[in-house]
Write a structure and sequence with these properties.
Chain lengths: ~300, ~300, ~300
């Protein structure tokens, strides 16, 4: 019986472990509730709020029979306000639980935490760094739709410069699933970073870059839409934000886009969505973003099982 | 075996279902804890904080053996801040749980949520709209005191223009319990809305309106006191608020009021109370507002059972 | 079978009860999880946030099989904002749970709460007042290290004027453990209050006061370090705070201090720590502050057991 030691970054997984996770996630879909993790406690330690991610981890723990201690906004509420280091907080909290789910506002938080924690740490997002469970649920969603991740054309659309999810997904695809083509579709100002593009090239992954969704949509198997990161326009910049939203309109997915797409293609989105996918798209069977969010529950159940009960 | 489909508004219930709820609530009073809802998860999704209501729902779920995932202040903490619609949030969260308890800051929130939720929704208050579980616990409190809701004189006192609870209670009384008399007691500026009064008239419910609590108190079976809604005087208007509090003094319930009241009358209040009921009243057996709050636990246990396990 | 009636202040315990608590805490260290408190609900009612303390109580309850309803910041989030008294809040919440853990921002909160609560109250800190479970875990940490609390020289260092923990610990030592010597080490502006010093004298406890840690360190068995209370320098006073931090530097514990200390001495700290103990000290076996925090879990499990299940 092996146990996962924690989940810090997407690239920690080898192909076999990824397969194990997806196999376990599929099992979890058939399991409404269980006593597997009875007597185990998970600490949700969120230094910035993320209701969606936090609730999906907590629901995962509850379904497996475990218990949860939780903070929604540790940066505002905790000893952090008194000047305590992340390392000290982790040393203390890790004595109170069997696994820590950490959302941190700065890159590298999860990795620093793991060094000082007595228990496994799961990275639930560390600033502009990683969000590995999102990357896993993205892959799982593609596998569920196509049975494999091979021979696919995957278009990533929108704010590729700032979207953490599309970066992680690109890396994972490059590392483990070589036989696909990636198309980056974005306005000039939010292109995918050159580090990712260089990595794809070094892995011999076919990729293209364009600002024309209309020509890409008809030949894509996956359209992975992303949101303009409003958080970057916080203080008084709502005018600029509105302008960017307006400029991004031609990248929006709507009925017209649907008409041009392949019949068995899928549309993904990490959510929350604002205007970049029309509500009219929701009822189309190719719209998979809500299923994608639900898949997060099964992937997180799988990870908690593999960490706390083994596999 | 039937199941309740959710709780959106007070008027959804027919007389028979109300009776079932009150019967189940009475059973719940004798039950300290149970495994009935083991393996079930309730999501507390509060877009504005309400510790009292949230805790009573969560305690209800815990007592029945279920588990809870919770957010205290989704408006501040969640994807809402990133511009997500209520509908999208509900579609996602409803994949993580078996029932959603929703407090929303705008009228109609629960009803919109129910349309997009995969699981039943319980309305825990939607702005100036409904708070149906409060209305149910109010009725339950009157039934416990009198064995029936018939032949009673029910005085509603205070800020009737803004109090959600007295409005809902009036509607329910009019619809299901015809043989009572309602007396609205308030200063001129916070009279009960004419919509409610017209509805009472159309249902042939006897009602009166006055600003004199002294003459009403001696002939009332129920005095339902309410609070001046401080939230309406937030920004710098504390002077006006203090004035309203002062003007409302003659509607306060105190030892003098108690002396004039019937021996088996009861005093209710949805809480929180500020100055509108003197602390000296608390020890009088006719003061039922804390029992009323406790009844909320039993009514919510009953609803959760009827929704998740059936009846 | 006796039951603890609640935990309001350190001085409520007689010697025998203290011994029972420490015996039960030791048992709890060997128990990972249990069903002892199954069906019981604890309410965490924190009027000011304290993630560490709250999580350790909630983890304690979870490990014993109980359930938790919780608010992180009741002052901001609750009916308090609408003007409700603590007493009313407690009367309501205590109908929803089997025990209340209360953190209140004003002295005397727990004691006021206990008068109106239907269930036992545990004081998790009331402003500048008491924090009795911290005092208990401090004593427990000393007992674990030395097997007894007798014949020890205990140095309390730093901001003794404002530190709640060192005050409580001094009182408890004076009352129950007479055969020790206490040395107060602080800058002139943050000396231990004269009330505590007078009490020690009246109890015939040997004590000294100095501002020279260098001469005290070599002869101490326990060095109890404390933090400059940053909260006192909130509004724009960060310059003064930085100055105080700088002035306090000579009271910091570092490798040099370690070199001068006894081999079997221990270093304690209530945490969070800022700069007053160097990170290089953490790996020394005499550094016990993280173990001390962990001991809080066992002491709180012991208290919950003694309150809810008896002893």
């Amino acid at each position: 019986m092996r146990k996962l030691a924690g989940v810090i970054e997407s690239q920690q997984f080898d192909q076999q472990t990824l397969n194990e996770i997806f196999r376990a996630a599929a099992e979890m879909e058939t399991l409404h509730s269980s006593d597997l993790l009875r007597g185990k406690t998970m600490a949700s330690l969120f230094y910035e709020p993320s209701t969606r991610t936090r609730m999906s981890f907590e629901a995962a723990m509850c379904r497996l029979g475990g218990q949860v201690i939780s903070t929604e906004n540790a940066r505002q509420f905790s000893s952090k306000a008194k000047g305590e280091s992340l390392e000290d907080s982790i040393r203390v909290i890790s004595a109170y639980c069997d696994v820590i789910v950490l959302r941190y506002h700065k890159e590298g938080g999860a990795s620093r935490a793991q060094q000082f924690s007595k228990v496994p740490v799961i990275n639930a997002g560390d600033g502009r760094g990683q969000h590995p469970t999102q990357a896993l649920l993205d892959l799982y969603t593609i596998i569920k739709a196509f049975g494999k991740i091979s021979g696919l054309t995957i278009a990533m659309v929108g704010d590729l410069a700032n979207g953490r999810t599309v970066r992680s997904l690109s890396y994972l695809l490059a590392k483990h699933y070589s036989d696909n083509k990636i198309v980056f579709v974005s306005p000039a100002q939010t292109r995918m970073g050159s580090d990712v593009k260089q990595y794809l090239t070094s892995c011999k992954i076919a990729w293209e870059e364009t600002d024309d969704l209309k020509t890409v949509a008809p030949c894509s198997d996956v359209i992975y839409q992303t949101r303009v990161q409003r958080e970057r326009f916080q203080d008084g910049d709502s005018a600029i934000y509105e302008q960017v939203i307006k400029d991004s309109e031609r990248f929006n997915i709507n009925s017209e886009t649907l008409d041009s797409m392949k019949k068995n293609a899928i549309i993904m989105h990490p959510l929350p969505r604002v205007t970049e996918i029309s509500y009219t798209v929701d009822s189309d069977p190719r719209a998979r973003y809500f299923e994608q969010a639900e898949n997060g529950l099964y992937v997180r159940m799988a990870l908690l099982k593999m960490i706390l009960a083994g596999y």
